[in-house]
Automatic annotation (TrEMBL):
It is found in: Membrane. PROSITE patterns: DNAJ_1, DNAJ_2. PANTHER family: DNAJ HOMOLOG SUBFAMILY C MEMBER 25 (PTHR44176:SF1). It comes from the Eukaryota. Residues 36-104 form the J domain. Keywords: Chaperone, Membrane, Transmembrane, Transmembrane helix. Pfam families: DnaJ. This is DnaJ homolog subfamily C member 25 homolog. It comes from Priapulus caudatus. The gene is LOC106806420.
């Protein structure tokens, strides 16, 4: 009966195997195993990619199993051909070849070589540029569909507003859009009503100039187009800024209407889209109050703040809120609704 293997003997064998592996620079299971990939193909480490490809093709013709007749030769050369193909796949790829050369130069870093090898094998081989392009495309599609959803919601709301609905019906009658429905007799009332609603909706959509966040979607507002047109936008801004400095700083020209609106937007901290969403009557009030001037804007802001404070002070809801803050506060526990 054979004597049992002691743990210390197993450890000794592993240590010897590790030392041998570190000595020859090869790791079993990684790259070409105990063989040198360069030797398998028959090239040196200084060989170019073209030289490696040429040597591989020459050897592949000799080692291909179909070039040999006997079953034993086919099996032997089949293994050699497989090893040749594996070596070529490693050396033709710049990143894998770099990792392999690193292993040859640093044989003692065993665990690092295993990590680098399997990280590259397991990690998905997807071009980062493709990922970025797909992400931008998805965001752009969501932007565009969301904008259409908001626009349709705005149109559906305007159709329910009496003054817009009445005006749209008048326009439809003037243009004879309802005449065709009157000619079509013996139709269900529900169907006729639906077509009338569709006509009114088309009239509202064709005559309403909706601005701001609910404006009609434009392909130029999506992320893809913003990125493509970014150089143009930057150039346009630089020209605008130089023109602004030349006219209003150097030549000391008085502000025109566009400049005044820009300064008012800047004081209000609103984008162009947000400013256009403000009712025209309020925008005219901003111009009348000369809010492009800092001092007048601050005075107007203080005035509006005081009006809001008085309005809130007279509000029953606000008084209830102040009592709640005084008696309980946000940390209070209560069973009241």
């Amino acid at each position: 009966m054979a004597a049992p293997i002691k743990p210390k003997h197993v450890y000794t064998v592993l240590v010897i195997a590790t030392i041998f592996t570190q000595a020859n620079g090869f790791l079993e299971g990684l790259y070409c195993g105990q063989e040198n990939c360069y030797d398998v193909i028959g090239v040196t480490r200084d060989a170019t990619k073209q030289e490696i490809t040429k040597a591989y093709r020459q050897l592949a013709k000799k080692l291909h199993p179909d070039m040999h007749k006997s079953a034993a030769d086919k099996e032997i050369y089949g293994e050699k051909f497989q090893a040749l193909g594996n070596a070529y796949e490693i050396l033709k790829d710049e990143e894998q070849r770099k990792d392999y050369d690193y292993m040859l130069d640093n044989p003692e870093l065993v665990y690092r070589h295993y990590y680098r090898y399997y990280r590259r094998r397991v990690a998905p081989k997807v071009d980062v540029r493709v990922v970025i392009a797909v992400t931008i495309t998805i965001i752009s599609a969501i932007q565009y569909l969301s904008a259409w959803n908001k626009y349709n919601a705005a149109i559906n709301y305007l159709v329910t507003v009496p003054k817009y609905r009445i005006r749209a019906s008048e326009i439809a009658k003037e243009e004879g859009l309802f005449d065709q429905l009157k000619k079509q007799k013996r139709r269900p009332k529900e169907e006729v009503k639906q077509e009338e609603e569709a006509i009114i909706k088309r009239v509202v959509e064709g005559n309403m100039d909706i601005k701001g966040g609910y404006a009609r979607p434009s392909i130029y507002d999506v992320l893809w187009m913003k990125i493509i047109l970014l150089p143009y936008a930057i150039g346009k801004y630089i020209i605008w800024w130089l023109n602004w400095v030349w006219r209003f700083t150097v030549k000391q020209e008085p502000y025109d209407i566009d400049a005044k609106i820009y300064l008012i937007r800047k004081n209000l901290k609103l984008s162009e889209t947000q400013f256009e969403a403000i009712p025209e009557r309020e925008r005219e009030e901003y111009l009348r109050r000369q809010l492009w001037e800092k001092e007048k804007f601050k005075a107007w802001q203080k005035e509006k703040g005081e009006e809001m404070r008085i309005k809130l002070a007279s509000s029953a809801r606000y008084k209830s809120y102040r009592r709640w803050m005084k008696n309980q506060g946000p940390g209070g526990i209560t069973f009241d609704d």
